[in-house]
Design a protein that fits this description.
Helix content is 32%, strand content 30%. It is of the alpha/beta class. It folds into two domains: 110 residues, 2-Layer Sandwich (Alpha-Beta Plaits); 162 residues, Rossmann fold (3-Layer(aba) Sandwich), CATH 3.40.50. A hairpin with a 2-residue loop joins β13 and β14. The longest helix has 16 residues. It is globular.
Length: 316
């Protein structure tokens, strides 16, 4: 099978954000290429001596991703370029160019599947669809995924922050609004945890079919969710469709610079006493998001950190 290989030239500071942006667009075959040296602790944990063969890190980095040859390359690249432009508005992403090459590797996508096994996130069991449920497994909810589709594995810190917020604050029969739904993983989990109905929105048309596919994989029927493409910040028609004071829980696992202008729309959508669960916030944007949520009328209930990522939970 032929694969197209794409390399985004960026900075080491922006690499994780670029990866997260690719995951949001359903691109899960991603790797980071840089010269960041291992820490002393990391070297000591390894079984070999490493000589300093790489030049010192000068801040340049790259993120490489792969698409199948028959994928809609133009649509995907347009979406990636849009994502890079959004990132460049609030941080230095370096050159931000995309270099294309072609590679033949029949087993490239399958080789890493050997290492992707079922795993728990608290009492939620997430497993690839080709793996059997582990013997004796106990779980509150089972989530099946196919990393070969536009789903992602659920292991990224930003997703975990949102999932833990769902587990803590969402109740059975709650109505959920998922802003910037991406491939729909959060809504899938919300419905599997007992949500009555989920409304998903995203500005990227690619997300609609990806979310539908993942709902079907988890045996969630179409009467349990609705998907709308558009920007809730300034799309009046979408605002009317979504409604006001209609949701017990609103989710937003997106960038801080999107959450900030979206806060008033989220406030209108959530019920009095309802919860707004946010993530995808890089740590140096924490205070700005808190200020925006407070200005919109929310009360900050909880702030959680995983690595350099922040999740903020607020109440109306």
């Amino acid at each position: 099978m032929k694969w197209k290989e794409f390399t985004i030239k960026t900075t080491t500071m922006a690499e994780e954000l670029v990866c997260n942006m690719l995951y949001e667009r359903g691109i899960t075959s991603v790797e980071i290429i840089d010269n960041v040296p291992l820490t002393k602790e990391e070297v000591e944990e390894m079984y070999i001596d490493i000589e300093a063969e790489l030049p010192p890190d000068e801040g340049d980095g790259a993120v490489r991703f792969y698409l199948e040859e028959d994928a809609d390359e133009k649509q995907m690249l347009d979406s990636v370029k849009e994502g890079l432009q959004e990132l460049a508005e609030f941080m230095d992403i370096g050159e931000g160019s995309i270099v294309t090459s072609e590679t033949e590797d029949v087993d490239w996508i399958n080789n890493w599947k050997e290492f992707f096994k079922p795993f728990y996130l608290d009492d939620i069991l997430i497993k690839p669809h080709w793996e059997a449920i582990p013997q004796g497994a106990k779980y509150r909810a089972l989530i099946e995924i196919d990393p070969g589709t536009s789903f992602g594995t659920g292991q990224h810190e930003t997703t975990q922050l949102c999932i833990r917020g769902l587990e803590k604050y969402m109740k059975e029969e709650d109505a959920v609004l998922d802003l910037g739904c991406g491939s729909g993983i959060l809504s899938v989990i919300a419905l599997k945890l007992g949500a009555k109905h989920a409304v998903l929105t995203d500005i990227d048309p690619i997300c609609e079919q990806a979310a539908i596919d993942n709902m079907e994989m988890n045996h969630l029927t179409k009467d349990m969710y609705d998907i709308h493409i558009g920007n809730l910040i300034d799309d009046e028609k979408l605002q009317q469709t979504v409604g006001e004071n209609a949701y017990d829980v609103v989710l937003a696992n997106i960038l801080a610079d999107v959450i900030i202008p979206m806060a008033p729309a989220a406030y209108r959508a959530v019920k009095r006493g309802g919860t707004f669960i946010t993530s995808g916030i890089i740590d140096f944007k924490e205070d700005a998001v808190k200020e925006a949520l407070t200005a919109a009328g929310f009360t900050i209930k909880e702030v959680n950190h995983m690595g350099e990522w922040v999740g903020i939970i607020a109440e109306k």
